[in-house]
Amino acid sequence: MSATVEETIQYASQESPDSPRRTVRVGICGLGTVGSGTVNVMSRNAAEITARCGRPVEIVQVGARRDNPACDTSQMQVSREIFDVATNPEVDILVELIGGTTVARELILTAIENGKHIVTANKALIAEHGNELFEAAASKGVTIAYEGAVAGGIPIIKSLREGLVGNRIQWLAGIINGTGNYILTEMREKGRTFEEALAQAQALGYAEADPTFDVEGIDAAHKLVIMASLAFRMPLAFDKVYTEGISGISIEDIRYADELGYRIKHLGIARGTEQGVELRVHPTLIPQRRLIASVNGVMNAVMVSGDAVGPTLYYGAGAGAEATASAVIADIVDVARTLEATPDQRVPLAGVAAGGQGQNCVLPMDEVVTSYYLRISAHDKPGVMSQVAKICSDQGISIEALIQHEPAEGEALVPVVILTSRAKEARLREAVSQIEALDTVEGEVVRIRVEPLG
Amino acid sequence: MSATVEETIQYASQESPDSPRRTVRVGICGLGTVGSGTVNVMSRNAAEITARCGRPVEIVQVGARRDNPACDTSQMQVSREIFDVATNPEVDILVELIGGTTVARELILTAIENGKHIVTANKALIAEHGNELFEAAASKGVTIAYEGAVAGGIPIIKSLREGLVGNRIQWLAGIINGTGNYILTEMREKGRTFEEALAQAQALGYAEADPTFDVEGIDAAHKLVIMASLAFRMPLAFDKVYTEGISGISIEDIRYADELGYRIKHLGIARGTEQGVELRVHPTLIPQRRLIASVNGVMNAVMVSGDAVGPTLYYGAGAGAEATASAVIADIVDVARTLEATPDQRVPLAGVAAGGQGQNCVLPMDEVVTSYYLRISAHDKPGVMSQVAKICSDQGISIEALIQHEPAEGEALVPVVILTSRAKEARLREAVSQIEALDTVEGEVVRIRVEPLG
């Protein structure tokens, strides 16, 4: 929607050099970790933010069920009813930091209905309801900014949507869950089991009491679909992400990966192919020499490869009060600067202007082609390797590398570790099920995908 | 300057949903590596670029003294006189890719005078004449975009100016010259001397016949002052950068650095202090565990640390036809999207709105505080170490680490390697000159600064 002529004239006159632009009025809903961080950073850096934005930006209202002693809201109008912020005519930008997908969705729809621009760090909401919210915002001529929803303070949304706009994105791959990366780092560096490392992450406050969301890849899937929608100009497709967690990763596999020149990381991967876009979150072996292989602890990093720019990487804190506040404030400044601009002068919500979104379908997982790390527990008998090689060969899969050590003292089973050539997921699964059916093989074959990221 | 009311009305009507926005007309000056890369990528990705920009963007004129067979300009109006592009009323955006600082400066000033927006990848021009050009652009209400001037395709200008806008930047440090980084990588990985590695870089086309610009840090200094001006809201201060090249780095020092847990990288560093901003380009020991220590070959990376976000890193190809074209096109799209916007709706030229630029002075090098790596050639006699320790101690410098191996067979001199505590440059220089005056010490002391980047 374009501004009316009257509005436009009013804006133009506001912007004459003689009358400074009016203060932009921000309402913040939610005073949890990110909410209080945002209040604190905006207060501390108010002068810088005004200078960079070209106009003052002020928090005029906070909506929160209770105060948070981590921040000072004594100079702000505080409402216990967050919907008051969504309907307050004195608010230009509503910043949604309450989390969740039900009340937050209603809050944002109400604010949009009342003509407010939206800034949010809510990845679940954007991933699951973004298509609906973007449509509502477009119909009211307002914008929704969501840099804080992916990878905390790393400006990855801006990089995808603006910085790399000249490229066809080929693929992106990210360590986008700090909890999972902390656990894998502890396992590798300190020889801890998954359970021990998880307990450590919980003790440090990096993991929730119920860690499912982080370790099973749901949080990473939320972030992945948001990035993929921008990279591949496609609607948000959270229900189509293939997701596999890290709870099955053992120290043994981390050690074998090291021996083969790889690290195991929990990656969110999106790749454009002729047949559709791959969308998958799973543990992945990546070559040690890739920069992203050295991203440790709770840090996040996203690799993006474009046809013109080649591989790029963006690294930083993926969570935390002030790191996420950094992204939220960048969004506030973007919106504030263009408050009076017409919608098509702003960066489009979904990365492309209306009608520009592609129909890219998501590639079914069976069709995805990758290499594989397999670990087989075999009886120490002649002929096992030739059986395994035959099964792989029949499926068009060749063996690129193999580790077989002598069995441990008194141990009847010997681990055989294989790196395969690239093969379709369906063929690999068939090969594995045949290998598992061999008399000479015990239990399940451990399977981890391998990505060169080159 | 704000748009007139008539103009504003015209723009508003253009943007109604019924009439699509008109094509943005680009004139490219210069058909060298980046110019031809830009023509190629814009042609190849035209559909994507239009979708992301929300309107068509077309190259309507090319100014170049000769054609470049690397790109097809047969569908474009080609002028042998580049100033024709600057005065062509059919051109909205002039893209300056001719390089150099004399004709390029005049070309841009002429284009600005004719009301055109500017996109340039010319780091020397922005670093040395940016203050003047920005003023000219501001007075005509047009913009100058220069993402391609720093670190090729990495969106570092956008990250500093927009993505991290909520932060007070504490420091930034970058590997921003691919040639130098290639040479240091070859020396470390293949045991080559500086001269051998340089010859190799020249053979591969990474280094010029006269490599001064790259290996002595002038190119890095250009890029550093551009980043520093955005990070610290200060005028461009190219003449105030301290610059030291890498031609004095020996394999011996690279090996000792390894032994101490460090890598030697040629960094551009800017740091805000109470007394002023440090601006320096020099070889630097950095801890091996920092991600940037693993950035090898011709790749670039910039670390930026902000008070809210903490340390972040941006990595990618720092040069090359299409990587730089990626940055140039991102700028073109930004300008095209906001072509009809008022100047204060655009991201300000120098990262801050008029009047927001600070008066930060550049800290004189004597006042800079860092740790140091020192390599001393000492006679293998008792008492040397106590003399050296006494001199350091008198200057308030303590010794944090020390390596002294036995002298080689038949060798009278033994290398003593020291890591010092943090000290002011002036005190360190005094200590070194006293050490060099010792009877027991031969020749000059090798000095390389150390940065924790933590």
UniProtKB/TrEMBL annotation, chains A, B:
Polar residues biased stretches: 1-17
Binding site for NADP(+): 29-36
Highest taxon in the source lineage: Bacteria
Residues holding NADPH: 123
Record flagged with keyword Amino-acid biosynthesis: yes
Keywords, comma-separated and alphabetical: Amino-acid biosynthesis, Methionine biosynthesis, NADP, Oxidoreductase, Threonine biosynthesis
Biochemical pathway: Amino-acid biosynthesis; L-threonine biosynthesis; L-threonine from L-aspartate: step 3/5; Amino-acid biosynthesis; L-methionine biosynthesis via de novo pathway; L-homoserine from L-aspartate: step 3/3
Disordered: region residues: 1-22
Any GO BP: threonine biosynthetic process
Active site positions: 223
Enzyme Commission designation: 1.1.1.3
Binding site for L-homoserine: 208
Entries under InterPro entries matching the protein: ACT-like_dom_sf, ACT_dom, Asp/hSer_DH_NAD-bd, HDH, HDH_cat, HDH_CS, NAD(P)-bd_dom_sf
GO terms, molecular function: homoserine dehydrogenase activity; NADP binding
Catalysed reactions, semicolon-separated: L-homoserine + NAD(+) = L-aspartate 4-semialdehyde + NADH + H(+)
Positions of the ACT domain: 373-450
Similarity field: Belongs to the homoserine dehydrogenase family.
This protein's name: Homoserine dehydrogenase
Annotated source species: Microbulbifer aggregans
The gene coding this protein: hom
